[in-house]
Every structure is written in C-alpha cells, then in structure tokens.
Sequence to fold (63 residues):
Amino acid sequence: MGKAIVKLHIFTYAGEDYVVEVPCNKEEVDDLIIARAWKMLKEEEGGSLPYGNRTAEILKRLH
Fold:
C-alpha cells in the first residue's frame, strides 16, 4: 500500500491550506483519495471544519 500527499484548501477570510498524507492503493481513484483526505482532516481538527468553498489537489502519489 502506498500513500498520496493531498493539498486541501478552504476559502475562508484567512484562506486556510492543509497538507495531508493519505494511505491509498496504486489503482485507487482520485476522488476516493480526496474524500479520505477530507475525512482525515476533519478528525484531526476535532470533528469540524470552517465554512467556505473547498478545493483539493493530489500533489504526489508514492507507491
């Protein structure tokens, strides 16, 4: 099993950026990896995230 490095951005007044390492399989779809990254971030931040539009980008996959 490899991992992916995902950059998450929430468009708040401060413009918050996060980088998360997500475990993933080699042939896993990008949307599943991004969904897992948002879930991991939410758990790390104590169960809630600030309101605002969100974007995500997979920076690198390591296998």
Remarks:
- The beta strands are 2-11, 16-24, 53-62.
